Amino acid sequence: MSVETPEKSYPVTPRNRVKRLHERGAYDREAVHAVLDSALLCHVAYVIDGQPFCTPTMHWREGDWLYWHGSSASRMLRHLKAGTPVCLTVSHLDGLVLARSGFHHSANYRSVMCFGKARVVDDPEEKRKALKGVVERFYPGRTAQLRPDQPQEVKATMVIGMPIAEASVKLRAAQVGDDEEDFALPVWAGVIPVTTVIGKPETSPHVPSGVSIPEHLALYDEGRPLDDVLIEAQALYERHGG
Amino acid sequence: MSVETPEKSYPVTPRNRVKRLHERGAYDREAVHAVLDSALLCHVAYVIDGQPFCTPTMHWREGDWLYWHGSSASRMLRHLKAGTPVCLTVSHLDGLVLARSGFHHSANYRSVMCFGKARVVDDPEEKRKALKGVVERFYPGRTAQLRPDQPQEVKATMVIGMPIAEASVKLRAAQVGDDEEDFALPVWAGVIPVTTVIGKPETSPHVPSGVSIPEHLALYDEGRPLDDVLIEAQALYERHGG
After folding, report:
1. Residues of A in contact with B188 (CB under 8 A)
2. A13 lies in a domain?
3. Is B223 within the bounds of a domain?
4. Which of A10, A46, B204, B222 has the smallest number of CB atoms closer than 10 Å to its CB?
5. Is B138 within the bounds of a domain?
6. Which pLDDT band holds residue B19 (cuts at 50, 70, 90)?
7. What CATH number does the domain containing B153 carry?
8. Is B121 on the interface with A (CB under 8 A)?
9. What is the mean pLDDT of residues A200-222?
10. What is the predicted ipTM?
11. Which domain of life is it from (chains A, B) (predicted)?
12. Which residues of A99-111 are buried (b: 16+ CB within 10 A; e: fewer)?
């Protein structure tokens, strides 16, 4: 959270410059953070001996840092230890775009690619804070109700942190771009929106009877778009100081 | 589609072996194809000068081949021309898993990582078939209604094909795995499902009045899970010979 007078935008370099359809690109922090914060799932690309890997994982953000975690034994995390370059991408599918020509079929989406060098979070205090963050960022207020982490759990978990060196947002949020000469064709065209929504909570059979869904999960309201919930959760998390 | 007596499973090598929580892993074609076919969006990882990139794109499948496409000018596609190694990953988020400890918080998901070497589809007949496939696979029956692709559109589009050399599925589809000694804690735990659903179609303002949503889009029924629609579309596509 301790970004002193941050620049409004991330730097633009040959690596992150949006080359195709650059009118769809953005580099400002607000746009980058909005795409990152409205998702729980990201994809991390890294290289081992020339071979690219693309691993899905949960991410969370503290200022200009991205975090993800996993088992201390995982292949991805063992290799990221060394500070190898990483590209962390978050994408949302928002709609299917159907045109009168094959060529103009498309999709509405929001995506962000973040570049940086990842490092293991091994400072005990930073790691403790990060492991609190991964729960608290998604479920603000929850960690106070949980039993404390046990030392062997902290040891078995590896946390990776990456300062965002460069980032770029790319998105499409528009109606179909049919050619004018195709407008009169008697074929339906338009956008079919898709949304990821919250379902009905399924209580674990091991929860004592009488324990109901807590107030801190009220934002996970059935039918609500996940994006909205996650943006709200991040705002609450930041407001309460993480 | 022309896979002669395919093996039931993709080969397992050090590259695709699921190392962590291997009870969550699978390599059989049916499981791999099920995850691939229920998504429109994938992430492609590739390496340029040692730097990993993770690019979101649409993919589609023909037998053991994966295809994606884009502008002939795109950075990703220009570099994939050379036959560089690629990891194409598809992930679905199915639920948030909330436990009585930070450690057992998790997510329900289905993911597949596919490894192979990508190549440009430049044979005119294969490219024509692929460009039909990218529409027809998602909207079976639609290409017959569209105006034909124009030569400059085909030229401006690059299609990449990759035979799946190795693949592995990893998933979690379970209730929370709380420790037995935490069962009595008076804290709610369970799964909050998330689902990506079809919304209400938005007709382009340039569609002539009187043209309604065609029968071939009936499967994109409002409120239906996108996964189910895409699985059904792929089955229809395969049944009608692509």
Report:
1. 203, 207, 211-214, 217
2. no
3. no
4. B222
5. yes
6. low
7. 2.30.110.10
8. no
9. 97
10. 0.93
11. Bacteria
12. bbbbbbbbbbbbb
Nearest CB among B87, B111, B191 relative to A52 is that of: B87
* Strand partners for A96: A107, A192
Task: Check CB contact of A128 with chain B, cutoff 8 Å.
Answer: no
CA distance B18 to B169: 8
Asked if B213 is an interface residue toward chain A (Cβ–Cβ < 8 A), one would say: yes
Give residue A13's Cα distance to chain centre. 22
Cα of B230 to nearest chain A Cα, Å: 12
Residue-range definition of the domain harbouring residue B41 = 22-195
- Assigned domain for B80 exists: yes
Q: What single-letter amino acid sits at A83?
A: G
Terminal-residue alpha carbon distance, chain B: 8
Instruction: Name the closest residue on chain B to residue A85, using Cα atoms.
Output: B51
Sequence-distant (≥ 6) Cβ neighbours of residue B49 within 8 angstroms = none
In the block, which residue shows the tokens 């050399």?
B165
How many domains in chain B?
A: 1
Tell me the per-residue pLDDT of A33-45, one tens digit each, with 9 for 90 and over: 999 999 999 999 9
Distances (CA, A) of B159 to A106, A158, B64, B68: 15, 39, 16, 6
pLDDT reported for residue A66 = 97
- B residues 216-235 near A, CB within 8 Å? 217, 220, 226
